[in-house]
Amino acid sequence: MSEQDLKQNVKVYPWYRAFAYDFLFLWTISILYLTEVKGFSYSQTILLDGIFMLASFLLQIPVTKLIKKIGRAHSAQLASVASIIFVAIYIWGNSLWIFIFANVLYGFSTSIRNITDVEILSITLKKLRKKNDYSRIEGKGMFWYYVIEGLTSIIAGYLYEFVNPYAPIISTGICAIILLLLSFVIKDPLDEEEQDVHEQIESNKKEREPSYKTLFKRPFVIWMAIFTFCFLGIASVHQTLTKVYLQDANIPAYLFGYIFCVYKLISAIASKFQFKYELKRGVKSLIYCCAMMIFTYISCAIIYWINPKAILSLIIALILFASQYFARAVFRIAVKNYINACVSKNSLTKTFSIYSMAESLGFAFVTFLTSIIMEISGNSYVITNFSLVALFIIPLIISAIYFIRALVKNYTIRCTIIRKDIE
Predict the structure, then answer these.
(1) Residue 84 or 395, more confident
(2) pTM of this prediction?
(3) How many separate helices (H) and strands (E) can be counted in the chain?
(4) Which of 38, 122, 242, 307 is the most buried (most CB within 10 A)?
(5) Closest by CA position to 166, among listed 90, 254, 255, 85
(6) CATH at residue 161
(7) Which domain holds residue 138?
(8) Number of domains in the chain
(9) Same domain, yes or no, for 122 and 155?
């Protein structure tokens, strides 16, 4: 691959990442659209989120084999086609089963991008001898994603409220087509000969890597997986419950856009300046995130129970939701930074894989559980919220304590001259 093609990858990647990271327009009004236009219940819409995350988890290994067989570039293009079919089903589909199939496709697309996007940028920068620029380029892509997502959130609300409920979904389809076009511009940084050499290097590397069985004997990995499962599982589902709360409080659709635009900007700011906060607080930043999330879960349920539609209640709830977005954004970066600091390079890939699987399983499990609770409780936000807190608060606190203890211990070991793998 020529140097010009490599530079083109670097130039196009931030925009590709911005469109590939999530479905623009759709995310903001998804609950409104599925319940008001398609006629699904809250429990069914939450169930669809769980189907997506479960599919993303289950397809991870098969997708890895597919990418090796057809290449990164072709896999990225296939993922874009799956995204377009997903949007088409959301426009014309009516039955729950066809929407379940759509979310399986979404999981398939996401599983591919979780691998191809990272590898394409990483290998491209290594060949350009700029591997230290990875965070900068990825950060640039995420910055534009948050900016575009914020703007499209506002537009989506207006389109849904004043133009046509299908207009935001059609706009999502246009974005999916743009992504498909960008996926043809992005090139696989390795040709066939280089690919063979790369696979040989990876094969030799795997011989030195510990097995998953060995990793799961290490306290750091065990508690990391449990903590991630609980924290991100309930945090991700609560983002969906935020929409349920706002819709139940009769917030107009066009205001959804402004509200979630602000939340996206808060996430962007938290992501950008998280490292400064972490320098001051260290591992305490994880404790604060955990405490903040638990406090907001309980507070939101109490507020909704007392008087959800009062102006003061809405203001407090919006502030609490903003705190959740901040804590979640800080957590996702901080925990990955500590994993990177505490794990040797031979264990890093599989440790991050365990982290990703714990996140996917946590989201899927809590989503299915939430769907069941809402179905039994008659779509009660209060009962659902209190139930999630009651079920997860103890394992969340225990796993947080033991994970942070293991983190501090292993971080100390990694800072010594020995630099050996964690036990």
Answers:
(1) 84
(2) 0.71
(3) 16, 0
(4) 242
(5) 90
(6) 1.20.1250.20
(7) 1-203
(8) 2
(9) yes
